[in-house]
Design brief:
The chain is an alpha+beta fold and 482 residues long. The protein folds into 3 domains: 163 residues, 2-Layer Sandwich (Beta Polymerase, domain 2), CATH 3.30.460; 82 residues, Orthogonal Bundle (Hydrophobic Seed Protein); 172 residues, cca-adding enzyme, domain 2 (Orthogonal Bundle). It is 47% helix and 10% strand. It has 21 helices and 12 strands. Strand 9 and strand 10 form a beta hairpin. Helix 9 packs across helix 12, helix 14 crosses helix 16 and helix 18 packs across helix 20. The longest helix is centred in the C-terminal third of the chain and has 20 residues. The radius of gyration is 29 Å and the shape is globular. The C terminus is likely disordered. It is an enzyme of class 2 (transferase). Adds poly(A) tail to the 3' end of many RNAs, which usually targets these RNAs for decay. Plays a significant role in the global control of gene expression, through influencing the rate of transcript degradation, and in the general RNA quality control. This is Poly(A) polymerase I. Belongs to the tRNA nucleotidyltransferase/poly(A) polymerase family. Its EC number is 2.7.7.19.
Length: 482
């Protein structure tokens, strides 16, 4: 009885935890065999890709690698876009030739990259990027020292392998299609064709692990979903929400490059919507996201600026990040300006603009060739709103005047009180055009082009100021503007 009471109060002997056997490690040969077993070959008569759609320079690289005894395939986004009926912007090649071997074949080749060793074959303005098949085991060519992983992030990966391993090392299934020059077939190891048919963006492997390897994949997911009008697969979407903060581990300069691809490629508005939907916009632009969430006018202005940029890209007109980011960050600047003490009111726009840029560049590196024009566009808003007739001509000669004026027009769509100023400056333009016709000058000279035309750059990267031609005053006064 006593023993039973002790067992009931204090419990019996604790059972030993069950021994968990480690999962067997798949050897390299078995891994390749498993991947190869899932291969689907789409014959030439079952897909729409033609060599006529492929860059002649890319074909030259493919044929030369083949003739040298290597395996070479057109790969990635080019094959994906051709399958979707989209004209690719660039063409990439994957091969079993190592970078040094590629360089020996092409005199016009340069080896680049430390994180991923690549060969760039130059044909004038076109560059064909050639990458060696990536492996997934450190015991392959290159050894363990060729791969460097810190906290799950891949910092360097020059382990080479087979086409099967290369396929599963890619980020999304739709980017893992290989066009074979031998028989013009398309090789699919990961179900990419089925995902294209379903318009689904799926990560290869575990999304959480793949995002941790390279957090920028989350931005690429949003960009591709926007560009292709695809839906991000549910597991990948949930992992993006959970891992969103990891994006700040990426280098600010790299994040800026990704933002250019997101917002300046003709699908900026949809990219913004994808970033917002998946929780990425709040991480990249927290202060702006706060204003967008609190004020409908702020959201409408951001969307209007992105939509206008998309339209310019569609029309084949030039665009620059300075104007777009100046418009996007304006609601944040307005809120920062409200928080300044009254003593700083005369210089409030400049001070608030500096604080906005100082905070944002800590997350996304805005180069000075863009941040300086942004500050100028903001500073000119006060002068445009309070300009006097006597100073109108001097202000209109400012290099960033047209950009600032277009920005004023954008603001007037959401701030009705600015419509009178917009009308006033329209009259100034009409008078300038009449003067130009009177003295024979061209009113459409390059310096009067759209604000989104970038300044010419000198070798050190700083904007080069354009000389402005002085216009002679007409002998007779121009007729008043209607």
């Amino acid at each position: 009885m006593l023993n039973q009471w002790i067992k009931r109060v204090f419990g019996g002997r604790k059972a030993k935890p069950a021994k968990v056997e480690p999962a067997p490690i798949e050897n390299l040969a078995d891994r390749r065999a498993r991947i190869a077993a899932g291969l689907r070959v789409i014959a030439r008569d079952q897909h729409s890709i033609s060599r006529k759609q492929i860059s002649q320079n890319a074909l030259r690289v493919l044929y030369k690698l083949r003739d040298a005894g290597f395996h070479a395939y057109l790969v990635g986004g080019a094959v994906r876009d051709l399958m979707l009926g989209i004209t690719p912007k660039d063409f990439d090649v994957a091969t079993d030739a190592h970078p040094e071997q590629v360089k020996q074949l092409f005199r016009n080749c340069r080896l680049i990259g430390r994180r991923f060793r690549l060969a760039h074959v130059h044909f004038g303005d076109e560059i064909i990027e050639v990458a060696t098949f990536r492996g997934s085991a450190a015991d392959e060519d290159g050894g363990a020292e060729a791969r460097e992983v810190v906290d799950g992030r891949i910092l360097r990966d020059n382990v080479y392998g087979s086409i099967e391993e290369d396929a599963i090392r890619r980020d999304f299934t739709v980017n893992a299609l290989y066009y074979a020059i031998e028989d013009f077939s398309v090789r699919d190891y990961v179900g990419a064709v089925a995902d294209i048919d379903a318009r689904l963006l799926r990560l290869i492997g575990d999304p959480t692990e793949r995002y941790r390897e390279d957090p920028v994949r989350m931005l690429r997911a949003c960009r591709l979903a926007a560009k292709l009008n695809f839906t991000v697969e549910a597991t990948a979407a949930r992992a993006m929400h959970d891992q969103a903060a990891l994006i700040l581990n990426a280098a600010p300069a790299r994040l800026f490059d990704e933002c250019l691809k997101l917002f300046m490629s003709g699908h900026g508005l949809r990219s913004y919507q994808q970033l917002t939907e998946h929780g990425m916009f709040n991480v990249l632009f927290p202060e702006l996201a706060e204003q967008v969430a609190a004020h409908a006018g702020a959201r409408q202005m951001v969307e209007a600026a992105l939509n206008a940029t998309d339209q310019r890209v569609l029309d084949g007109r030039p665009v620059t990040p300075a104007y777009l980011f100046a418009a996007m960050f304006w609601p944040w600047l307005v809120e920062a300006r409200k928080r300044l003490p009254p003593a700083q009111a005369p210089d409030a726009t400049r001070i608030a603009g500096e604080r906005v840029l100082d905070k944002q560049v800590r997350r996304i590196a805005l180069p000075k060739r863009y941040s300086v024009p942004m500050a100028e566009i903001w500073a000119l808003q006060d002068r445009l709103e309070a300009s006097r007739k006597k100073r109108a001509g001097k202000l209109a000669s400012h290099p960033k005047f047209r950009a600032a004026y277009d920005f004023l027009c954008l603001r007037a769509e959401f701030e009705p009180g600015l419509k009178d100023q917009v009308h006033y400056w329209q009259q100034v333009f009409q008078q300038q055009d009449q003067r130009g016709q009177a003295d024979g000058s061209d009113p459409d000279a390059p310096e009067a082009e759209s604000p989104e035309v970038e300044a010419t750059e000198v070798p050190d990267g700083s904007p080069k100021k354009k000389r402005r031609r002085r216009r002679r005053k007409p002998k007779t006064a121009p007729s008043p503007a209607p």
